[in-house]
Amino acid sequence: MFSSHDAAPYLLTTFTNAVWLEKRPDELDALLGPHQELVLANVEADKYLVGRTPDDEMERVEKLQPAYYIPSDRWVYEDTMTDAEQLEEIDRCMDGTREVFNRIEARDDLPTQVIPIAKGWKHWHFERCQRTFEDLGLSYCAFDVTQYNSINMVLEDVHRLIEVIGPDGVLLIGKLSPDHLRRCPPEVVAATGVDHWRKNSQTESGRFSRELYRFWAVRAYAAISSAQTRLDHFGSQSNVRIHG
Q1: pLDDT tens digits, residue range 133-167?
Q2: Which residue intervals of the chain are DSSP H helices?
Q3: pTM value > 0.85
Protein backbone atom coordinates (compact mmCIF):
# COMPACT_ATOMS: atom_id res chain seq x y z
CA MET A 1 0.00 0.00 0.00
CA PHE A 2 2.61 2.56 1.07
CA SER A 3 5.88 1.52 -0.54
CA SER A 4 7.09 4.43 -2.73
CA HIS A 5 3.47 5.63 -3.12
CA ASP A 6 3.61 9.27 -4.21
CA ALA A 7 0.39 10.02 -2.29
CA ALA A 8 1.93 8.81 1.01
CA PRO A 9 4.66 11.20 2.21
CA TYR A 10 4.77 9.73 5.71
CA LEU A 11 4.44 6.35 7.37
CA LEU A 12 3.50 6.48 11.05
CA THR A 13 3.96 3.42 13.21
CA THR A 14 3.57 2.86 16.92
CA PHE A 15 6.49 2.09 19.20
CA THR A 16 5.42 -1.55 19.61
CA ASN A 17 4.61 -2.21 15.96
CA ALA A 18 7.97 -0.72 15.03
CA VAL A 19 9.64 -3.84 16.46
CA TRP A 20 8.76 -5.53 13.16
CA LEU A 21 10.65 -2.86 11.22
CA GLU A 22 13.53 -2.82 13.68
CA LYS A 23 14.13 -6.53 13.14
CA ARG A 24 13.91 -6.18 9.35
CA PRO A 25 16.08 -3.24 8.26
CA ASP A 26 16.05 -4.43 4.65
CA GLU A 27 12.24 -4.40 4.67
CA LEU A 28 12.27 -0.86 6.07
CA ASP A 29 14.67 0.33 3.38
CA ALA A 30 12.46 -1.23 0.72
CA LEU A 31 9.30 0.19 2.23
CA LEU A 32 10.20 3.88 2.22
CA GLY A 33 10.75 5.68 -1.07
CA PRO A 34 13.06 8.71 -1.37
CA HIS A 35 10.16 11.10 -0.72
CA GLN A 36 8.76 9.20 2.27
CA GLU A 37 9.64 9.67 5.93
CA LEU A 38 9.08 7.52 9.00
CA VAL A 39 7.15 8.88 11.98
CA LEU A 40 7.58 6.81 15.16
CA ALA A 41 4.93 7.34 17.85
CA ASN A 42 5.13 6.28 21.47
CA VAL A 43 1.34 6.66 21.50
CA GLU A 44 -0.53 3.42 22.12
CA ALA A 45 -2.57 1.37 24.59
CA ASP A 46 -1.72 1.68 28.28
CA LYS A 47 -0.62 -1.94 28.58
CA TYR A 48 2.29 -1.21 26.25
CA LEU A 49 3.30 2.02 27.97
CA VAL A 50 3.61 0.58 31.48
CA GLY A 51 7.26 0.50 32.55
CA ARG A 52 8.60 2.09 29.36
CA THR A 53 11.57 4.36 30.05
CA PRO A 54 13.46 7.05 28.11
CA ASP A 55 16.23 4.47 27.70
CA ASP A 56 13.75 2.16 25.94
CA GLU A 57 12.63 5.03 23.73
CA MET A 58 16.15 6.06 22.80
CA GLU A 59 17.08 2.49 21.92
CA ARG A 60 14.31 2.31 19.31
CA VAL A 61 14.99 5.81 18.00
CA GLU A 62 18.67 4.97 17.59
CA LYS A 63 17.92 1.78 15.67
CA LEU A 64 15.21 3.16 13.37
CA GLN A 65 16.33 6.80 13.15
CA PRO A 66 12.87 8.10 12.23
CA ALA A 67 12.41 11.54 10.76
CA TYR A 68 9.99 12.35 13.59
CA TYR A 69 9.40 10.90 17.04
CA ILE A 70 6.44 11.46 19.39
CA PRO A 71 7.78 10.59 22.86
CA SER A 72 6.72 9.56 26.34
CA ASP A 73 2.93 9.20 26.13
CA ARG A 74 1.04 8.59 29.39
CA TRP A 75 -2.59 7.92 30.27
CA VAL A 76 -5.00 10.59 31.52
CA TYR A 77 -8.62 9.59 32.24
CA GLU A 78 -11.57 11.68 33.30
CA ASP A 79 -13.81 9.06 34.90
CA THR A 80 -11.31 7.05 36.96
CA MET A 81 -8.58 9.52 37.96
CA THR A 82 -8.48 12.39 40.42
CA ASP A 83 -7.02 15.77 39.44
CA ALA A 84 -3.85 14.88 41.35
CA GLU A 85 -3.51 11.61 39.46
CA GLN A 86 -4.09 13.37 36.14
CA LEU A 87 -1.43 15.93 37.03
CA GLU A 88 1.04 13.20 37.96
CA GLU A 89 0.67 11.44 34.62
CA ILE A 90 0.86 14.68 32.61
CA ASP A 91 4.04 15.64 34.48
CA ARG A 92 5.51 12.19 33.82
CA CYS A 93 4.74 12.65 30.14
CA MET A 94 6.39 16.08 30.10
CA ASP A 95 9.42 14.89 32.10
CA GLY A 96 9.93 12.05 29.63
CA THR A 97 9.48 14.43 26.71
CA ARG A 98 12.17 16.74 28.11
CA GLU A 99 14.64 13.91 28.64
CA VAL A 100 14.11 12.28 25.24
CA PHE A 101 14.20 15.65 23.46
CA ASN A 102 17.45 16.66 25.13
CA ARG A 103 19.07 13.30 24.44
CA ILE A 104 18.10 13.42 20.77
CA GLU A 105 19.26 17.03 20.44
CA ALA A 106 22.65 16.05 21.87
CA ARG A 107 23.16 13.46 19.13
CA ASP A 108 24.56 14.78 15.86
CA ASP A 109 24.07 11.35 14.27
CA LEU A 110 20.27 11.32 14.72
CA PRO A 111 18.11 13.02 12.08
CA THR A 112 15.06 12.84 14.33
CA GLN A 113 12.80 15.78 15.13
CA VAL A 114 10.65 15.50 18.26
CA ILE A 115 6.92 16.19 18.08
CA PRO A 116 5.68 16.52 21.68
CA ILE A 117 2.25 15.25 22.59
CA ALA A 118 -0.27 17.46 24.40
CA LYS A 119 -2.03 15.50 27.14
CA GLY A 120 -5.41 16.09 28.72
CA TRP A 121 -8.37 18.29 27.85
CA LYS A 122 -8.71 20.95 30.56
CA HIS A 123 -7.08 24.39 30.53
CA TRP A 124 -4.73 23.49 33.35
CA HIS A 125 -3.78 20.23 31.62
CA PHE A 126 -2.66 22.12 28.54
CA GLU A 127 -1.02 24.85 30.62
CA ARG A 128 1.15 22.17 32.17
CA CYS A 129 2.19 20.96 28.72
CA GLN A 130 2.69 24.48 27.41
CA ARG A 131 5.46 25.19 29.94
CA THR A 132 7.48 22.25 28.64
CA PHE A 133 6.88 23.11 24.98
CA GLU A 134 8.04 26.68 25.59
CA ASP A 135 11.14 25.59 27.50
CA LEU A 136 12.12 23.25 24.66
CA GLY A 137 11.35 25.81 21.95
CA LEU A 138 8.72 23.60 20.30
CA SER A 139 5.95 25.40 18.45
CA TYR A 140 4.02 22.33 17.29
CA CYS A 141 2.51 19.25 18.94
CA ALA A 142 0.54 16.07 18.46
CA PHE A 143 -2.86 15.39 20.03
CA ASP A 144 -4.34 11.91 20.37
CA VAL A 145 -8.10 11.65 19.80
CA THR A 146 -8.13 7.96 18.90
CA GLN A 147 -10.67 7.00 21.55
CA TYR A 148 -13.02 9.96 21.13
CA ASN A 149 -16.46 8.97 19.88
CA SER A 150 -17.73 12.48 19.14
CA ILE A 151 -16.32 14.91 16.58
CA ASN A 152 -17.88 17.76 18.59
CA MET A 153 -15.82 16.73 21.60
CA VAL A 154 -12.72 16.51 19.41
CA LEU A 155 -13.27 20.03 18.11
CA GLU A 156 -13.97 21.39 21.59
CA ASP A 157 -10.71 20.02 22.99
CA VAL A 158 -8.63 20.92 19.92
CA HIS A 159 -9.83 24.52 20.12
CA ARG A 160 -9.00 24.59 23.84
CA LEU A 161 -5.54 23.18 23.14
CA ILE A 162 -4.90 25.88 20.55
CA GLU A 163 -6.25 28.59 22.85
CA VAL A 164 -3.90 27.59 25.68
CA ILE A 165 -0.77 26.34 23.91
CA GLY A 166 -0.95 28.43 20.74
CA PRO A 167 0.91 25.97 18.48
CA ASP A 168 1.86 26.75 14.90
CA GLY A 169 0.77 23.25 13.92
CA VAL A 170 -1.06 20.25 15.34
CA LEU A 171 -0.76 16.63 14.23
CA LEU A 172 -4.13 15.02 14.99
CA ILE A 173 -3.79 11.33 15.80
CA GLY A 174 -6.79 9.14 15.18
CA LYS A 175 -9.07 11.19 12.91
CA LEU A 176 -8.73 11.00 9.13
CA SER A 177 -12.28 11.51 7.94
CA PRO A 178 -12.22 14.36 5.39
CA ASP A 179 -15.57 15.57 6.74
CA HIS A 180 -14.08 15.83 10.23
CA LEU A 181 -10.82 17.39 9.08
CA ARG A 182 -12.70 20.15 7.24
CA ARG A 183 -14.22 21.20 10.57
CA CYS A 184 -10.86 21.44 12.32
CA PRO A 185 -9.16 24.81 12.86
CA PRO A 186 -6.35 25.77 10.45
CA GLU A 187 -3.71 24.91 13.06
CA VAL A 188 -4.44 21.23 12.36
CA VAL A 189 -1.96 20.75 9.54
CA ALA A 190 -1.53 16.97 9.65
CA ALA A 191 -3.53 13.92 10.66
CA THR A 192 -3.07 10.21 10.96
CA GLY A 193 -5.31 7.23 11.57
CA VAL A 194 -6.07 3.66 10.57
CA ASP A 195 -9.78 2.98 10.19
CA HIS A 196 -10.59 5.46 7.44
CA TRP A 197 -7.69 4.64 5.16
CA ARG A 198 -8.41 0.92 5.54
CA LYS A 199 -12.08 1.40 4.75
CA ASN A 200 -11.45 3.68 1.79
CA SER A 201 -8.54 1.74 0.34
CA GLN A 202 -10.11 -1.72 0.19
CA THR A 203 -11.84 -3.28 -2.78
CA GLU A 204 -15.01 -5.34 -2.46
CA SER A 205 -12.84 -8.44 -2.31
CA GLY A 206 -11.06 -7.08 0.75
CA ARG A 207 -7.73 -6.43 -0.98
CA PHE A 208 -5.98 -3.08 -0.69
CA SER A 209 -5.80 -0.87 -3.75
CA ARG A 210 -3.07 1.72 -4.29
CA GLU A 211 -5.35 3.60 -6.68
CA LEU A 212 -8.21 3.73 -4.18
CA TYR A 213 -5.72 4.98 -1.61
CA ARG A 214 -4.58 7.71 -3.99
CA PHE A 215 -8.16 8.83 -4.66
CA TRP A 216 -9.01 8.93 -0.96
CA ALA A 217 -5.73 10.59 0.07
CA VAL A 218 -6.40 13.52 -2.26
CA ARG A 219 -9.71 14.12 -0.46
CA ALA A 220 -8.06 13.89 2.95
CA TYR A 221 -5.27 16.30 1.99
CA ALA A 222 -7.75 18.78 0.55
CA ALA A 223 -9.70 18.72 3.80
CA ILE A 224 -6.72 20.06 5.74
CA SER A 225 -6.40 23.80 5.26
CA SER A 226 -2.62 23.62 4.75
CA ALA A 227 -2.67 20.44 2.74
CA GLN A 228 0.92 20.71 1.53
CA THR A 229 2.43 21.84 4.85
CA ARG A 230 5.19 19.47 5.90
CA LEU A 231 5.62 18.60 9.54
CA ASP A 232 8.95 20.38 9.72
CA HIS A 233 7.32 23.57 8.44
CA PHE A 234 4.43 23.83 10.85
CA GLY A 235 2.33 22.13 9.06
CA SER A 236 -23.09 8.87 19.20
CA GLN A 237 -21.78 11.15 21.97
CA SER A 238 -20.37 10.35 25.40
CA ASN A 239 -19.53 12.72 28.24
CA VAL A 240 -16.54 10.62 29.24
CA ARG A 241 -13.18 11.56 27.74
CA ILE A 242 -10.50 8.92 27.40
CA HIS A 243 -6.95 9.99 26.64
CA GLY A 244 -4.98 6.76 26.42
Answers
A1: 999 999 999 999 998 888 999 999 999 999 999 99
A2: 18-22, 25-31, 46-49, 54-64, 83-105, 123-136, 151-165, 178-182, 195-201, 210-223
A3: yes
Number of H helices, E strands in the chain: 10, 9
Q: H or E stretch including 169?
A: strand 169-173
What proportion of the chain, given as a percentage, has pLDDT over 70?
92
72: left (phi over 0), alpha (psi -120 to 50) or beta: left
Torsion 62-68-71-73 (CA) sign: negative
User: How many CA atoms lie less than 13 Å away from 115 in the CB half-sphere?
Assistant: 30
Question: How far are the Cα atoms of 26, 118, 197, 224 from residue 71, in angstroms, in the given order?
Answer: 25, 11, 24, 24
Length of the chain: 244
Strands across the sheet containing 37-41:
10-14, 37-41, 68-70, 113-114
Q: How far apart are CA 65 and CA 63, in angstroms?
A: 6
Say how far apart CA 113 and CA 231 lie, in whole Å. 10
Residue 11: φ, ψ to 5°: -125, 115
Torsion of CA 47, 139, 22, 74, to 10 degrees: -10
